[in-house]
Amino acid sequence: MIDPKKPDTVAARAGGGFDAGSGGVVPPLQPSTTFVRDADYNLVAPENSYGRDNNDQVRLAEEILTNLEGGEDSLLFSSGMAAISTLIGTLDRGETLLLQKGIYWGTTHWVRGFCEKREIRLVEVDTSNSDELAAAIGSEKPRMVFVETPSNPWLRTTNIRHAADCCKKAGSLLVVDATAATPVLMQPLALGADIVMHSATKAINGHSDVLAGCLTTGNKTSPIWLAVQEARHGAGAILSAYAAWLLIRGMRTLPLRVRQMSSNAMSVAQYLGDHEAIEAVWYPGLENDPGHDVAKSQMPNGFGYLLSFLAKGGKEPALTFCRHLTGIHRATSLGGTESLVEHRHTVEGHLTGCPDNLIRMSVGIEDVDDLIGELEAALSKV
Ligand SMILES: *Cc1c(COP(=O)(O)O)cnc(C)c1O
Question: pTM higher than 0.90, yes or no?
Answer without folding.
Answer: yes
